[in-house]
Amino acid sequence: RAKSDGRKTHHVYEMEMKYEHVENFIHELELSNALERGELSLVYQPIYNYQFKRIIGSEALLRWNRCGTGFIPPVDFIPIAEETGLIIPIGYWVIREVCKFWKQFESSFSEPFKLSVNISRVQLNEPGFVDSILRILDSEGVSPRVFELEITESTVIHNLMAVQQTLRSLRAAGFTIALDDFGTGYSSLNMLTSLPLDKLKIDKSFIRDLNEPLITSILMMANALKLEVIVEGVEEEAQFRMLAGLNCWGLQGYYISMPLGHEQIAATLGRDD
Ligand code: C2E
Ligand code: MG
Ligand code: MG
Ligand code: MG
C-alpha cells in the first residue's frame, strides 16, 4: 500500500493500520460464529479439459456471507482463520460439505472427475490431520479418489520433511495432490522432485500476459516430472486458444466459468462443448 500512494503521510498509514487491526479483530470474533450461524458456503469453479472437451473437475471455494455486511473475500478471512486456528474446524466442515456435494451429484460425475479442495498449511501441519480427514470421508461414504487436495508452496517451505510425510500418507490413501499458485512462491526443482505431487496449478499471473514460451517451458518441465498441469486465470478467448494448442490437463478461469453455486454447477455437469 505504501508504494501505491506516495503522498500519504506516515500518520495516515498509522491510522489505517490501527483501523485494519480493529477490523481484523471484529472479523475474528464474527468468524468464530460464522460456521454455526450458517454464514459459510462453498462455490465450485469448473475445470475444463481440452482433450475430453468437457469439465473434468471443480474447485471448492469458500464464501463468507457475513451477517450485515455481505460477502467477505477469502483473502480477507482465510489468513485470520489461519492465525486463530479456526481454519481447522472450518477446513473439516469444507471436507464434509464437499462429500455431501459429491454424494448429491455422484451419478453426473464421470471419470476422471475430481473435486479440488484447498488445504491450508495450518491444516496440513495439524497432528492427526490424515486420520481425521479419512474418518470424515469414511463416515460420509466417499472415497479419497474423489478428492484433489491443493497445497501452496508456502506450506512446504518451512518443513519439507514433515509435509513430505503427510503428503505421502494422503497419496497412499488415494488422494490426488496438486501444488497451487505455482510460480508465485519459492519452489525449487529440488522441492518439486522431492514432493509426492500429481499436478501443478500454474498461477494466474503467468497467463495474464500470454507468455507462451514461458508457459511452454513450465509444461515441458512438468512433463519431465510426470506432473499434470492446470492453468488458472483463463479469462479470455485468446488465452484459451493459445492454451488449447498446448498439452495441459486442465483450464480454469472466468472464460471457462465463474465459481458456481450448487444448482448452477449441476446444470454444467455432463455437458459436452
Ligand atoms: P486459489 O486456490 O488459487 O483459487 C483460485 C482463485 O482465483 C479463486 O479466488 C477464484 O475465484 C479466482 N479465479 C478463478 N478464475 C479466475 C480468473 O479467470 N481470473 C481471476 N483474476 N481470478 C480467478 P477466491 O475464491 O477469492 O479464493 C482465493 C483464495 O482463497 C484461493 O486461491 C485459496 O487460496 C483460498 N481459499 C478459498 N477457499 C478456501 C478453502 O476452502 N480453504 C482454504 N484453506 N483456502 C481457501
Ligand atoms: Mg486452489
Ligand atoms: Mg491458485
Ligand atoms: Mg491462492
From TrEMBL:
It comes from the Bacteria. Residues 24-273 form the EAL domain. This is Bifunctional diguanylate cyclase/phosphodiesterase. It comes from Cohnella yongneupensis. The chain holds residues 270 to 542 of 542 of the full protein.
